[in-house]
Amino acid sequence: MRWIFFSHRLPPKPSKLRVYVWRQLKKMGAVSYQSVWVVPYMKNLLSDLESLASYIEDYGGGSVLIDGKPIKKAEQERILKAFLEAGTEEYQEIANKCDDFLKELASEIARKNFIFAEVEENEEDLDKLKKWIKKADERHLVKNPLRKLVAQKLKQCERALEDFSLQVYEHSQIKKKANSKRR
Questions:
Q1: The domain containing residue 142 runs over which residues?
Q2: What CA–CA distances, in Å, run from 181 to 12, 114, 172, 178?
Q3: I need a labelling partner for 45 at 20 to 30 A (CA). Which of 14, 28, 111, 135 fits?
């Protein structure tokens, strides 16, 4: 497999530069391996790294980009493992947030908190989860077994929200009928 290796030297100040560079690399899905950042060779990632290199140079730093592949198969496997671990960490966090979402809906049902505002709030939370998954998929280019679990959990969340929305609707109709009988 072909990789882009990226190394940089940053001036000691401003410290926000270090944070910015680190965040940009993480957003690209880069993995720090043996003191060098690594991403799979892709034209869009190369372009992003070239832009980041220019940014670093504008602040008085320096960087080097290398297109290549490890000579030893064992190194290739270690790099792939580093990417797998990075993806596993993020997908596990997403799976945990899906579990939290399901618990929140169960709590609303247990409290009989059948109001439309809760439907909207939970729709927003579900949209955030979907956006996060999309970003994670763009970042983690090495196939990860947890991705399938995350997809299943997301489906559970979607079904649970549909069920909750139906309960809120039915509850609103019952209240509506009760109010019309009182008049």
A1: 83-182
A2: 74, 21, 14, 5
A3: 14
User: In DSSP terms, which residues pair with 5 in a beta bridge?
Assistant: 38, 66
Phi, psi (deg, nearest 5) at residue 118: -70, -35
The stretch 112-134 carries a mean pLDDT of 97
Q: Residues of the chain with pLDDT > 70: what percent? A: 99
- Nearest CA to 3 out of 164, 142, 182 is that of 142
* Token pair for 17: 């530069």
Average pLDDT over residues 68-89: 95
Q: Report d(CA 8, CA 30) in Å as an integer.
A: 13
- Name the residue among 65, 52, 64 with its Cα closest to residue 18: 52
Token pair 């949209």 is found at 127
113 plus 29 within the same structural domain: no
Overall domain count for the chain: 2
Shared-domain flag, residues 61 and 88: no
Residues 58, 112 share a domain: no
Q: Residues 90, 120: one domain?
A: yes
